[in-house]
Amino acid sequence: APDIPVIDQAYSKLSNSITVEWRAVPGATNYMLTAQDGDSFIETMVKNSPGTVTGLKPATLYQITVRSVNSGGKSQPSPFRKVKTVLAAPILSVHSPSCDSIAVSWKAVHMAAGFSVSLMRSDGLGRMLKQNTTNTSLIFTNLDPGTLYTIKAYAWNANGMPGDDFTYNQRTSPNAPADVKVAFNSGALRAVVSWMPTEGALTYSVTVFSGLLKLRCNTSSAYCMVPSLQCGSEYYVSVTAYNDAGSSEPTDAVSLKTVPCAPVNISIEEDEPGHLLVSWSSVSLGHYYVVFVKSDDGLEVHCNTSYTQCHFQSDCGFTYFISVFAYNKAGQSPLGDVFNYTTAPCCPSDFRAVFMSSDTVRVTWAPVRGADLYETRAAGGSGVVLCRDTATACTLSALQCSTPYNITVYSFSEARGSSTSCAPQYVATAPCSPEIKNISKEGVSVISVQWQPNNEEATYVVTARGEAGLWHCTSTRNSCTLMDLPCGSAFSVSAIARSPAGQSLPSYSIPLETAPCCPNDMILAQLTQSVTNISWSVGRGAQTYVTTLESPKGQAKCHTLQTYCLLGCITCGTNYTVSLTAISETGLTSSCTYQGYSSSACCPSGVKLYRLSNNGIRVFWRASDETINHSADLRGSKGNFSCTPSSGLSHCDITEIPCGDVYAVVVAPVTDKGPKLTFCPKKIYS
Fold first, then answer.
1. What is the pTM of this model?
2. Which of 136, 317, 515, 599: CA 20 to 30 A from 249?
């Protein structure tokens, strides 16, 4: 084992440890330090000198020994030294009761005879303050507000030996902020409070109160916004600064008056046409009022007054939007209710009345402002006719003809009713329709029309309308005459009445038919000795025809739908009178007379043939009238032959006839009025 070490010195700088110094021992690798207090001891192994024993009790006397140690073992303890640990540090409790002071207190320390406390700004500026005391508390005053200070304290014993020290950093509470300003936002009903930053303040609290209402705003900046203020109120604003030491004193209260509230009990009256009166109730903190009146065409006017009413001019048919604001130094009140007032609509202009018929008038007008509905009223005759519509036109029907009316157009709106001061317009209806009483025929193509007059100062026009055209006659009385009407035509006859007020509806039409026209051309052709064919051109308006041939010897007649007719029982060689009656579908007739007609001469009888030679024959006949000449014709396959006797003879000879043929022999009278007759009987000769 190594030699016993010798302690040079042992001392205590901390209340929980003792430091020992000794001379090194050759061959020792470690040293064991022992601190013994009565029966308890604490050992600590160290490498070399000096060494410290820790975990000791403050202000306690210890017996200190040292042993050297190596692989061979431990030496005997060195001669001991008695050392007492220093006093424990006082545990401080620090706070800043005001912005310029710091209070320090602590609990009593065992074996302490007194205490030493020093204070200095943590940034090193200024001088250090130090106080010695036997008490357990003290106060440093006249300090800088909001400043961080470092505080160090220790206790000493009766020998004046200082113990452990205790260090604590403490900031003084801040000073009250200065230069507090309040900016009020009237539109948002909020205020921005600002101030000069104060030294050492970490946060600020703004208090806004009015009566029992209290609002707070906390911030770390040098301003704060206080929302949700009430209009028409006076607030008091103060600011308090805070840090970890506490709070400053509140600043002196600053008065804040908000904008007045929007006026209420607003009433709008049209005390007379064209004038609006707007009134309202006064409001708290309102110094003056401004009324804005905006019409629906965008034009806006305003009125500035310290009273509670304003007058405005107005026009018909406009909607006015009215808002009232109160003002003071803080600004304009919030927007209250916006009222609208609609004046009565204007009277319609550009009034026009056009008659569609004698009992119907169409009234049109220009649209007017503010009108939702129009009422047209026609007063006259036996009553009133009404028409309501949203359009700018109305048709009044069932009016009495030939009657004066006062027509007025009123405009209506849902908001304000009707315009009652619109002027009427005088309108007279067209004449009443006449009633035709009689149509009579005064002569060929002349018709007289009579009607019942039922209007005053009216001119009547009668019209005959047909495919042939139009014919008119005019009269102010109760009849007129239609002249030169064409034959065979159908007409519709009606009458109208005219006056300065207009034209009536036409009367009921009366049908009129003129007698059919006579055919212009007639042709007679004798087909046989007793049958004649008569043909004629069409007679306009005729449906059937009656044709008559009449002579002293008798009459021949036919009734037909056609334009021709075969008449039998005609006596040959007789003069006839020719007449035709054209008959219309309704039975009207026209008698037509034409040039006389003579039937052809009678065919001879008793025709006989005698052979004269091999190539000749003689033809005999018996004539009904010896003054008429006759001719004989032979017609065969080998040739045609004829002969004509001298006047007064009743035979003639035909010679050089080829033999061996069959001939047809016809004897017919010869006249100078036309060709030979072809219907006389034939004789066959071989």
1. 0.49
2. 136
